[in-house]
Amino acid sequence: xxxxxxxxxxxxxxxxxxxxxxxxxxxxxxxxxxxxxxxxxxxxxxxxxxxxxxxxxxxxxxxxxxxxxxxxxxxxxxxxxxxxxxxxxxxxxxxxxxxxxxxxxxxxxxxxx
Length: 113
Fold this sequence. Notes:
This protein is mainly α. It has 4 helices and no strands.
């Protein structure tokens, strides 16, 4: 008898676990980025065609998308904006390091320092 009760208890727990897993998956997938949202997001990149001001405006738009529109944008798009900002920061730091070393080398060759 004890084996049957143990088997039923284990079976009930596995069914409950499966139902909870399905419920969690449904709640996770409710806020999906649509194709129209992606197209609008990538079309915003055309603002980069405006010299200097366009680049600054695009970075501001990405920052607003990452941190400012908490309930209006899907979480996946907000995470993409955050990752984009991190990658952009790394590229800027690497560029400044490379440009600084290049300028230092050029100034040294010219006898400036």
